[in-house]
Hints:
The structure is a homodimer.
Chain A: H1 10-17, E1 40-50, E2 56-58, H2 64-81, E3 89-90, H3 93-98, E4 101-105, E5 121-125, E6 130-134, H4 137-150, E7 152-154, E8 157-167, E9 173-179, H5 187-199, E10 204-208, E11 210-211, E12 214-215, H6 224-229, H7 237-248, E13 253-260, H8 265-270, H9 299-315, E14 320-324, H10 331-335, H11 337-346, H12 351-368, E15 372-376, E16 389-392, H13 396-404, E17 409-411, H14 423-427, H15 440-443, E18 446-453, H16 463-467, H17 470-479, H18 487-502, H19 511-519, H20 526-533, E19 536-537, H21 542-546, H22 558-561, H23 567-581, H24 590-613, H25 621-643, H26 649-662, E20 669-670, H27 674-690, H28 695-706
Parallel strand pairs in A: 2-3, 2-4, 4-6, 9-10, 9-18, 10-13, 13-14, 14-15, 15-16, 16-17, 17-18
Antiparallel strand pairs in A: 1-8, 5-6, 5-8, 7-8, 11-12, 19-20
Helix pairs in contact in A: 2-4, 5-7, 9-12, 20-24, 23-24, 23-27, 24-25, 25-26, 25-27, 26-27, 27-28
Amino acid sequence: MRARTCLPFLLPLLCVLNVSAQNTGAGATPRHSLMPVPASVQFKDGRLSVGKSFNIAARGHTDARLRATVERFLRRLEGRTVMELPRGLRTDATDAGAASLVIEAAGPGRDVPSVEEDESYTLEVNDRQATLKAPTTVGVLRGLETFLQLLDGDREGFYVPAVSINDRPRFPWRGLMLDVARHYQPLEVLKRNLDAMAAVKLNVLHWHLTEDQGFRIESKKFPKLHQLGSDGQFYTQEQAREVIAYAAARGIRVVPEFDMPGHATAWLVGHPELGSAPGPYTIERGAGIFEPALDPTREEVYKFLDGFLGEMAALFPDSYMHIGGDENEGKQWNANPKIQAFMKEKGIKDNHALQSYFNRRVLAILKKHGKTMMGWDEILQPDLPNEVVIHSWRGTAALAEAARRGYKGVLSNGYYIDLIFPTHQHYGTDPVPADSALTPEEAARVLGGEATMWSEWVTPETIDSRIWPRTAAIAERLWSPREVRDVEDMYRRLAVMSVRLEELGLTHEKNQAMLLRRLAGGRDTAPLQTLVSVVEPVKEYRRYQQRPQTMLSPLTGLIDAARPDSDAARRFASQVDALLSDAPRFEAHAMPLRNTLTQWRNAGPELEVLIDRSPGLHEARPLAKDLAELGTTGLEALSYLSRGVAPPAEWRDARLAALDAAAKPKAALEFPVTPAIRQLVIAAYEQPRLGRLTAAEWKSQVKQLSAPAAKPPGR
Amino acid sequence: MRARTCLPFLLPLLCVLNVSAQNTGAGATPRHSLMPVPASVQFKDGRLSVGKSFNIAARGHTDARLRATVERFLRRLEGRTVMELPRGLRTDATDAGAASLVIEAAGPGRDVPSVEEDESYTLEVNDRQATLKAPTTVGVLRGLETFLQLLDGDREGFYVPAVSINDRPRFPWRGLMLDVARHYQPLEVLKRNLDAMAAVKLNVLHWHLTEDQGFRIESKKFPKLHQLGSDGQFYTQEQAREVIAYAAARGIRVVPEFDMPGHATAWLVGHPELGSAPGPYTIERGAGIFEPALDPTREEVYKFLDGFLGEMAALFPDSYMHIGGDENEGKQWNANPKIQAFMKEKGIKDNHALQSYFNRRVLAILKKHGKTMMGWDEILQPDLPNEVVIHSWRGTAALAEAARRGYKGVLSNGYYIDLIFPTHQHYGTDPVPADSALTPEEAARVLGGEATMWSEWVTPETIDSRIWPRTAAIAERLWSPREVRDVEDMYRRLAVMSVRLEELGLTHEKNQAMLLRRLAGGRDTAPLQTLVSVVEPVKEYRRYQQRPQTMLSPLTGLIDAARPDSDAARRFASQVDALLSDAPRFEAHAMPLRNTLTQWRNAGPELEVLIDRSPGLHEARPLAKDLAELGTTGLEALSYLSRGVAPPAEWRDARLAALDAAAKPKAALEFPVTPAIRQLVIAAYEQPRLGRLTAAEWKSQVKQLSAPAAKPPGR
């Protein structure tokens, strides 16, 4: 489900940004890099050293999943420590006494991963031993990830600090939706992302398998679905089972989605007889909302769905099945006289009611096959039975309303990672915010949330960089106590997490340099790296508006190399903030700011030379000019500030006008640093007038005057 | 086959390094970046622009392989140009007239890729159209790679220069041997390397499937082989067929190797009854040569081999099969009284003769199954039938001797890429050197060569960086005319090729940064990047001697991040060379040299801080100190030179002693820049005495005095 209007998650964000204190449950101990932060964590004196004899024993339950998990854990520990460690899990009682890490699982957990799984664990580490206890193997998995995150080192070697952790998730449904339909993603992409999900304690892969642009799962009953609807890019049932097993081994459920009655073009290529218009149909290559929809008035359609969903119900063991249900605009229904006659005959007053009729029919089919139905917001019509789970793209208010009416729900509004919003914005979205008016019973119906990776503009080369590391912060929102919400600390831990995720084969960090090298045709990419570090793709749905492409277009441009939530821009803004707080001396961070700005100014001409020879970069020409100008403007402002001299109004006006021009996206990329440069310009100009204010007053004045909408004062 | 003595390929190298002129067959046109250089290439005036309407038509033969190749070609072209291009291959005559690129294949080529395949093609490009003609689809494949390498760009956009190319390989056997036994490599590693092989026109994947350390292919007849011999890491027969088909689609043969009678421990884990000692056996975890060998005196062994090799002969369609045959030291044979008795009875005088007996028996089995036998040098015993192909690890002389005696042969001596030699060393090795005394008929028996990737010290994370880009230079040696041997130009083109290979998913460029980030635990890796850019893993078999590990050890250390043939070191040495040629002013490149040396000096202390917190880097501590000292020494020498002042003898002695210490490997890494720094020190000291010499004399004197073995003069 695509939320095509501006998402209303700015409000919670503002609260979060103003919170600076954080209760992590930790004692007065050094900062940790745990993500998600455990429900309760108490650091102690001492440390367990991790050396070549580090070994693991089990006391109590063991099974194949536990053993495999321990093996993977040891390989990652070896990778980080560059030490060969003893293999395997010891299982006799005398071993446990001497082991470095003792695991006590009470039982295996559910046969099929379930939303009711107990994922809790406790981890006690002292000088001699670490003890991980959990009621299920899944709890052990979660605890082992925490243990790996605790690993630290110094001159003495590797160690884990002494600590007492008592952890359990806040929400039982913590998902990542992968749209593999608009751009197919091979098995290795799914696997490495499942590994990453486990690393941040996510537990649901919502597998969006069908779309206008592709039908990605093999149907043995109706093979024309995947044969004609996928360009040959689909998962065999054997591969689907492989993914399900891989996920289950990591305590992750797989909830498949078969989007209907809209978003159905790819179904209709092989089966036009199911459509509401006669066809023929071809696989959709564009982005947007399209008309093709299943015909809800024909019994053959339900017979087909009974066959197909029955086949899928047997393939996917999870007890939930997602039927989409979103964005059917009903144009084909309006245009079809038979459908109109059917509605008249049955007294179905409008398309919403017709879709409700369709949903009830599909619900009956799913119940027959033992599945709980889930669908996007639109399925919530007055007569919907409340055994159905609502997947909300409309927001927490809609979700709360559903909960009040007795529906279980999962939130995705606020977690649309394809929209390129900064991490703190997702982090500030809470499925049950502090000011929620829900009763505890109602609140319990809010099962959790899902980050949604819609795949119009991602390929196997770039998808990881759209999911990670931001999704780790969403995972924390869904696992950790509501009170864990210090944004600055989140960003600090996120940077560590981002690198840790690489050991799982993720490419979010390393592929940027590769994309730039290809664009530069093997030439030096240093100035390009400077540029790309301070631009971000435009937000929401503006990429397509500003730089239209199709599902067949190469996604190898500068916008594809650029990443959401620029670290360099955030660092720059915080340095500017510190500099302005240091009025009237303006010395704090002046040196690194000057270096950064000089680098931008110098990169401009170097980029011009590179761009001349690399036509794939021609669209970046205005960005190179902007970057140089941002550097020059910033350097001039810095110079005025450090000399305590105010520039003439003409300078300010010219610079602000140039900043307005630079703030306009080019090649669907924008500079998140322009507001900070604007602050420097305003501060330089306003020095004399603001000289007598306190630091806080001064900063607030500059911020106010720098707001992009503000007209220059006194004009 | 491991060549455990110093390889004798230094002599040809010296010739190559002294050749500076190069005949590429090109006209007086700008430098190209083709690799391998075509047999004949003539650039012309004009260019074919490559824009959004670029399209391809076929005139004459088409087939599924050709279509799939064109699709892959278009995806890569789109990736580089960031343009969506028309899909598919047009096939009617009117299309061909208007097409940007016309393909004329005369026929499909052989059903199974063969050493007799015709891979030739011609490519004519003018302002209006490119025409690619070839007798087979494989020739088209080769030509399309050349076309992609010709792609260039400027302010006007992308284009291919007008050119006339007539190309064919010098040798028909151009291979890469992958040892997937010591470290298993998943399918995706094989596939991306097959793509890279095709990009540099290699045509044989020699798949080294069995070893003491692992038995990697499923046997349905004898399942204990892979079940007990592989830790579960083996290729199913379905996967093997997938690899064979993937290779064939790229015009690449797959020659499997089942190493026997030695290197056989992993066979014997499941089948100890085949061994020359009673067993039991366990999978070998060490590196080296081991005793377990098949028992050549027992008929059951040949019955078993008949079954197994028959099964493999049906699985692998190539007409060659490699039986290894190397490094059997015969200790188990000596110790087994039954074997000794058998030898006495049959009049077999020694272990060589016994292995000959074994080889003749295996040869008969392979012939029965329709395969030509191939084996390492050792199999060449006096009574070997000359239908067998000799795979030479001993060198060109041994290969020539075999050719004279009527054997076909393939060279790998000189192409042992696991030994971390610099590229120019491999590039200088010619299977039939210019001074070869072979008659044309004998020379034709030298089929070509194979780069050998033995896998003791590589994982899926690092293997690409050991293969690429160096193997592209070996591919050129085997494809291009003998006269193409300008080392400097090779390095220039190799750098371009290295980046181009990344589009195929190879990780040789991008994984280094990832390995460093893991080692640094998420901290800033800038000083570590400086260090790693100027160190190389020690050569030959010294890694294991200096830093012993097993097949189970993590390969995530600094040595694994370091790459062979440091670009930075080569650039530094050439800048020092230019500086010394600029005597007595010493101004050429003084600025970049000073910057580089300053960076080294400053990185030292920064590294110390990083190392303190990253125990995985503790072994790098002496390297950090060395790096800082190399920087300081170089800066001081530069300063003496630029001032025209000679340092005191004490300075020189202290600095040379420090350089001697820095030249000693630490953590199995060494600084290839020490000789250049030594030259700077000597030059600084010798300034007054050498002042009256010519530039050439002066440089030669400094080089002579700087040779590491040389004692300081006059002591």
